[in-house]
Prior knowledge:
The protein is α/β, with parallel strands linked by helices and 151 residues long. It has helices at 17-33, 58-82, 96-107, 122-138, and strands at 8-12, 36-43, 46-48, 53-55, 87-93, 112-116, 142-146.
Amino acid sequence: MFTQSYQNILVWIDGSDQAMEAFKKALNVAKRNYGTVYVANVIDHQIYTFMSYSPLNENIMDQLTTDAKNLINECKEVGKEFGYNKIEGVIAYGSAKEAMAKTLPEKYDVDLIMVGQSGLNAVERFMTGSVASYVIKEALCDVLIVHPTKK
């Protein structure tokens, strides 16, 4: 019988309930396997405008980085409450698709990626869905899409 032991689990966090749910499930997997959870927030340097992409200014980048650090700290607090502290925070810059499917899995020897099914609002749900679809197709390891818990 074959059993899978995931040691390095990557979770994309964006502040949504879906991302937090994926993180909590990742904690369970990591705890069972004595693994590490890498919580990643990817900041894209470009913003979509009506006609093209434009670079983000330094103040916006600073705020996005601060927000990412806060999300990571929130995850570490949740992990502490859960009784598990093998959590590493990662802030990456560039394409979320590439970072989650290839760059971060290579860098951290990731063997499982967990992604929430949707994001915060309609635009973010579209982007998250787009990232999740890309990660499923292009990831270098196993991928688990976390569907929302029905309340």
